[in-house]
Write a structure and sequence with these properties.
The chain has 10 helices and 8 strands. With about 220 residues, it is an alpha/beta fold. The strands form 2 sheets. Strands 2-6-1-7-8 form a 5-stranded parallel sheet. The protein is globular. It starts with a strand and ends with a helix. The structure holds 2'-deoxycytidine-5'-monophosphate (DC).
Length: about 220
């Protein structure tokens, strides 16, 4: 089965590339960050201690991911409520980054992530897709961008959602998050040996997508 892993820090355009490839190649989609974000969000609204591994694992196993075949649409359901629209904000991302350094929690989430791999194939996006969750993925990408590009992209995404934050605040928050994701002991953000690194500064979404498609074709 074709598995395409896309990893990289926050704001490099992983999500955009992943969704474009899902559309073009008609594959299934795993946004692994949404799993960490969902647990973070539920822990936050229920005032759960972020060091309480057992509670975090319980939350993870109570979330239902309703996968719609060959589509990027996955409904994330907790206690009969769809929470998709509540998790994509900077506060939840920060908590997600904190809890994601928990090795036991990460281990408890391996099988749910692998269960997204269904015919005809999967585009999996995150921090450890190519290194840990799908080490045998046929195609691996690692996207990079400089700090200012990353923050500007994230700022635009937030603006589209009507959320206002300052660029300097965003740069600081992204740096803090990336530093934590890079330096944690459990599945840190690393470039897999067999990944194609795409530097996305000064490249349009279309440029990145074309580079990725070329690589996918040459890997077949
Ligand atoms: O991709 P994202 O911004 O939605 O991810 C939010 C946080 O979740 C990120 O800062 C670290 C964590 N994460 C992770 O540890 N491993 C993944 N595969 C995906 C996300």
């Amino acid at each position: 089965m074709l598995i395409i892993a896309i990893d990289g820090p926050s704001g490099v355009g992983k999500g955009t590339l992943a969704l474009n490839l899902v559309e073009e190649l008609k594959l299934n989609y795993l946004n692994s960050g949404s799993i960490y974000r969902s647990i973070a969000y539920i822990a936050e609204i229920n005032s759960i201690d972020l060091n309480n591994t057992e509670e975090l694992i319980n939350i993870g196993s109570s979330i239902i991911f309703n996968i719609k075949p060959n589509s990027h649409k996955v409904d994330i359901i907790y206690e009969n409520k769809t929470i998709n629209n509540l998790i994509f904000n900077e506060e939840t991302a920060k908590i997600a980054s904190k809890i994601s350094s928990n090795k036991t929690l990460r281990l408890s989430l391996v099988s749910i992530q692998r269960s997204f791999a269904k015919e005809p194939g999967l585009i999996a996006e995150g921090r450890d897709m190519g290194s840990v969750i799908f080490p045998n993925a046929e195609v691996k990408f690692f996207l990079t961008a400089n700090n200012e590009t990353k923050a500007k992209r994230r700022l635009n995404q937030l603006k589209e959602k009507g959320i206002n934050v300052s660029l300097t605040q965003l740069i600081d928050e992204l740096n803090e998050r990336d530093k934590r994701d890079l330096n944690r002991k459990a599945s840190p953000l690393i470039i897999p040996d067999d990944a194609l690194v795409i530097e996305t500064d000064n490249k349009s979404i279309k440029d990145v997508q074309e580079e990725a498609i070329k690589h996918i074709k040459s890997s077949n």
